[in-house]
Amino acid sequence: MKLKKVEILKYKSFSNNQTFQVEDDITILVGMNESGKTSALEAIGKTNYFQDDEEFKFSLSHDYPRKEKKSIDKSGIDPEAIISTYEIDSELLARIEKELGAGILTSKEFTVTTKYGNGNNWNVKVDIKKFIEHKTKVLGIASAALTDKLIKVNSIDDLTAVIEGYSDDKYITGLKTLEKYYRNLWKWNIGPIAEYIARIYLKPNRPKFLYYDEYYTLPSRISIEKLEGNELTDNEFKTAKAFFELADINTKEILEADNFENFIAELEATEAIISDELFNYWQTNKNLSITFHIDKIESTDRNSNTRIVEHVLDIRVKSKGVSLSLKNRSKGFNWFFSFLVWFKKIQEDHESNYILLLDEPGLNLHASAQADLLRFLEDLSKDYQIIYTTHSPFMISSENLNRVRTVLETDQSSIISDSIQEKDPNTLFPLQAALGYDIAQNLYVSKKNLLVEGVSDLIILTAMSSILESENRTFLRADVTIVPTGGLEKVATFISLLRGSNLETVCLLDSYTDAKGKAKMDSLIAEKIIHGKKVRFFHDFLDTYDTADLEDIFTKKDYLNLFNAAFPEHVDISEADLNPAINQIIIQINKHLAIARFNHYRPANQLTKMAVDATFFETTTLDNFEKVFKEINSLFV
């Protein structure tokens, strides 16, 4: 059974009805702090929480919109809080139809309206005639006359009146078997058959909700006496209690024991189960381990001079021989470990379905760790529906923007939008940032990256590679992505960034003329951040040049043809116009035009606009580019 739609009627900042669709896997509520994201999760969780918890029951005093509370108090009515729409799965539908007849339900969807008194109204659409025809046929008493009589039956008394109209034992016995369908124990006005289906089939299979936020983290030091006496804070108590239940340990037995080895063994067995899943996704630091220590601490009360005994469980995290209490590890690690305690608790309940409600998961995690968390949630969503809130762009996959619901607070009410149509820039920022990050990652970065100086290099190398490929000559490997760095001085920064992502990197650069830039590159090579063999300069491919740019890989004639076509505002330049004492053609052109620098992008762009083939170029140009591609290809694994 899946949750398909939620309509929040009245709850905290939601003064106006807000409806949104729920995805079968993951639904994401995105918005600023205090926009109403958490309130939406709370309202959903309170409709069918997985355990008896006062925090997850509707309260007029705390939950009803404040500006309307006085009027609702005076009315004396029990207001409706939220309407949840569910879809019955095919397996459950088959069970219902097997007992009550094919087509008994006119819709696979049904709604549950939860009121502030925490009661529910169910709306299940049934075809009474299909039920009657199925049952009377199975009983061997079917007739149009009997069907007409039973359609009017809405209670046990009505059924008894019909039975009394028959003297044939076959009819009497058969009709009495239908009594269980007409008891209407919930006293519904819409009919006993719908009530029976809801009570027997739908309610037991309706998903339960598990809500989790950062406040449910496990305390690193647990007093068993305080746990037994319910003296811990509410959320600490709940998580600690869940931990001992997961370990199947009776805390009362600890209080009576002198030796704690058996309990520690149980705790460590539980920790091993949690750790298997934790470290499958926790990639930030895999050199961690959890340790437990139970001790009996004795002290004397100074005032009464009485002996005090306290049993304490210490949870510590060990890394490279050094252990720290759980609370002194990162908040992100604590969140992950504590969530798995909660999650494993519900995993052991094989009789129920669950929907996970996660408030700001991964809030304290590094961006790369949030990516691990996303992977974890994707795997969980194969078995559980998940609704989570976030304002982090790293918790939003641009490939699945259909999952996003934006939440915005206005003067009248918090608003939830199914489509990404909010005009508020603060609400949209995480989505824009996520999309921008994804574009940056995928447009210019892959497993194998060739770093070049600028976009013009990208255009020229791509175009020349295609021309060589069409001639069945060596071209740039298809699995290599050309990454323009935005300038020679930024190459070192790009190398450092890509190195942290375990990517292959090769550099193809203009000759350094700036000592500072060369020093940075030499430092990266010296520190083995990039191997010297992975850095190539264009002068390496030209025997007579000590310094060269990409443009020098062309013969001077070929490049001047591109330049002249790209700059019609200048008189065409010929080789005779260039200073032969200067090697680099870019400097030669600048000197001839008496300018500091021309736009290198325009000749590169002209190359693509002209759509030339190999016949446009001299053999030396093609040979030079093929030499470049052969060398670059060999530098990648």
What does this 3D model show about the protein?
It is a single chain. It contains 23 helices and 19 strands. The model has no long low-confidence stretch (mean pLDDT 85). The strands form 4 sheets. A 6-stranded mixed sheet has the order 7-12-13-3-14-15, sandwiched between helices. Among the domains are: 215-348, no CATH class; 445-635, no CATH class. Helices cover 41% and strands 18% of the residues. The longest helix is centred in the middle third of the chain and has 21 residues, at 261-281. It has 637 residues and is an alpha/beta fold. Helix 20 packs across helix 22 (601-610).
Task: Name a few traits of the molecule.
alpha/beta; 23 helices; 41% helix; 637 residues; 5-stranded antiparallel β-sheet; 6-stranded mixed β-sheet; 19 strands; single chain
Short description:
With 637 residues, the protein is α/β, with parallel strands linked by helices. It is built from 23 helices and 19 strands.
Percent in strands: 15-25%
Quantity of strands, as a count: 19
Determine the mean pLDDT: 85
Q: How would you sum up the global shape?
A: extended
Largest sheet: spatial strand order: 7-12-13-3-14-15
Radius of gyration: 36 Å
State the helicity in percent bands.
40-55%
Distance between the termini: 49 Å
Largest sheet: 6 strands, mixed
Domain OLD protein-like TOPRIM: 446-510
InterPro entries: AAA_GajA/Old/RecF-like (IPR041685), Bact_Antivir_Def_Nuclease (IPR051396), P-loop_NTPase (IPR027417), TOPRIM_OLD (IPR034139)
Domain Endonuclease GajA/Old nuclease/RecF-like AAA: 1-396
Protein name: AAA family ATPase
